[in-house]
Amino acid sequence: MTRILVYTSPARGHLYPIVPTLLQLQARGHTIALRTLSADVARMSELGFAAAAIDPAVEALQADDFKGRTPIARLRRAVDTFTARAPFELEDVRRAITEESPGALLIDANSWGASTIAEASGLPWAHWMPYLLPLPSRGAPPWGPGLKPGRGPVVAARDHLLGAVIRRTFNRAGVPPLNAVRARAGVPPVRDTVALFTRSPLMLYLTAGAMEYDRPDWPDSIRMVGPGLWEPDGQTAPEWLDDGDQRPLVLVTISSEFQDDARLVATALEALRDEPVRVVATTLDTDPATFDVPDNARVERFLPHGPLLDRAACVVCHGGMGITQKALARGVPVCIVPFGRDQLETARRVELAEAGTRLPAQRLNPSRLRAAVRQAMDRAAGARRMAEAFERAGGAGAAADAFESLLRSPSHV
């Protein structure tokens, strides 16, 4: 059996989706040595992993993409964060390899420095990607703005021109600092930031084909295995949840990483105050006392989402892949108001699959949100189709199978 060093970026939205795969690998006899955000070390240790914190310098570099004024500006700020973390990640993983003597590596695709040292290590290694993969392909719109796909010369010209602008923006920001880190690791430079996502022998892509466009020119190393769905133990329903209220439940939630999206909660409370629904909202870092809470709503900083999703008729959210795929895996339609990052792409895919609705953040107001929620609640059939697609993808078992196949490949045996 193999000791596997696993390295995550400082985000629960990247850690939690890979946990089911790690548990599956551990159950098969492999040892998991995990480096992750400090606040979750104890929780991960309780699962049996040899867990330790990533370098505090990495954790200190928090995403600030919400400060960008346009989708492209926000994505560029995200690239700046990944490249700023990269030198610290490189040394952090180098130390971890010395300390743990692993036989294989599993690296968060957002940890660019960790990926670089993994490539240089000579060990079998793989990426995992918990959000929609930003790799271009023939016939699909450029990743980022959440464009609607189409055909014809006008759409082709749009995709070509905008795709060139997006990639040039990313590459100007990302390629020079990234190649400086790659030079320190002794691996060849790259000409394009998205090339990082094809450097690993295996990419565990934590979604299913129903959430993705047709990608005939993507490499075989990319394996769609379905979403990683995990929440900490103790996900019991609060007593008040089963108080006999028969109205459909609408869960409203925002990003687990600060994104300045609390106005989604405020707007949803106003939009749904006179609707025949029961609203439960979670706000995390935003004080619930700052909201005007109507009689049909309850607002808490944190509630376990599992029990709420089991009873929900709709989820109103920012479109993070974690909450979106958790809802769809239960056949619950979603109303997405994307604020940035991968969320514009997630919202578009959900809309096209008729598993929910999409409302751009710049158009957010109570009347539009109310209409979007009503429409989403009529799309439960599409959400159930998505749940079936997730199930067919195989989940943690399929991911563990793929990783073990990598370990058995001739180049690593």
Can you put this structure into words, describing what you see?
By secondary structure, the protein is an alpha/beta fold. It folds into 2 domains: 3-226 and 394-408, Rossmann fold (3-Layer(aba) Sandwich); 239-391, Rossmann fold, CATH 3.40.50. It is built from 13 helices and 13 strands. The protein has helices at residues 12-27, 41-46, 56-60, 71-100, 112-121, 153-185, 263-271, 305-311, 321-329, 343-352, 366-377, 380-393, 395-408; strands at residues 3-7, 31-36, 50-53, 104-108, 125-129, 203-205, 222-224, 249-253, 278-282, 297-300, 312-317, 334-336, 356-358. The strands form 2 sheets. It has a 7-stranded parallel sheet with strand order 3-2-1-4-5-6-7, sandwiched between helices. α4 (71-100) crosses α5 (112-121), α4 runs parallel beside α6 (153-185) and α5 (112-121) crosses α6. The longest helix is centred in the middle third of the chain and has 33 residues, at 153-185. The two termini are 12 Å apart.
Topology:
Elements: E1 3-7, H1 12-27, E2 31-36, H2 41-46, E3 50-53, H3 56-60, H4 71-100, E4 104-108, H5 112-121, E5 125-129, H6 153-185, E6 203-205, E7 222-224, E8 249-253, H7 263-271, E9 278-282, E10 297-300, H8 305-311, E11 312-317, H9 321-329, E12 334-336, H10 343-352, E13 356-358, H11 366-377, H12 380-393, H13 395-408
Parallel strand pairs: 1-2, 1-4, 2-3, 4-5, 5-6, 6-7, 8-9, 8-11, 9-10, 11-12, 12-13
Helix pairs in contact: 1-13, 4-5, 4-6, 5-6, 7-11
